[in-house]
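Narrative of activities, Objective 1.

The group set out to show that a structural description can be obtained from nothing but a protein's sequence at a throughput compatible with the screening campaign. Below is one input-output pair from the validation batch, recorded exactly as produced.
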Amino acid sequence: MSAHVVLAVLVAGFVLVRVVGRQLVGSLVTQRSLFVLPGALLALGLFSLWPVLHQASVGELAFLLLDCVLLLGFGVARGASLRLTRTPEGLWQKGTTATLLLWLLTIALRVAGAFASQALWPHNPVSQASLVFTIGLTIAAQSATVYQRAQNQHIPLATQQA
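Output recorded for this entry:
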């Protein structure tokens, strides 16, 4: 396993533990918490993914696209599963059992997708390079859903983290 892959897995693990942990315990939702992390992950992911896209076959690109569509759907579902509450400080989110199950399914899908891609295309650099990007994508979809729900319910975002 290359150093690039190990680093991506470590970053992904840290992000998931932090994001999932905060959601299950509950936390205030700020603009920063909604947009900075997914934006940074998407940018880092694109930085890793862009140089290897030209090496991908049509099948590899189709597989990546399918992976992205499924992860977007899981992100939207997780965003819909969070309990949103108005507090004096602003928007509070707390995960539900459904949120936890959807996170477990998201992780299982991403792991299964990586193994399937490796089995179909043993020397597929796109699959390895897409890990951080796809995690950013699913978190961005969740954040966008939470933001839209908060706007629809007229709940202002918190101004600072608790």
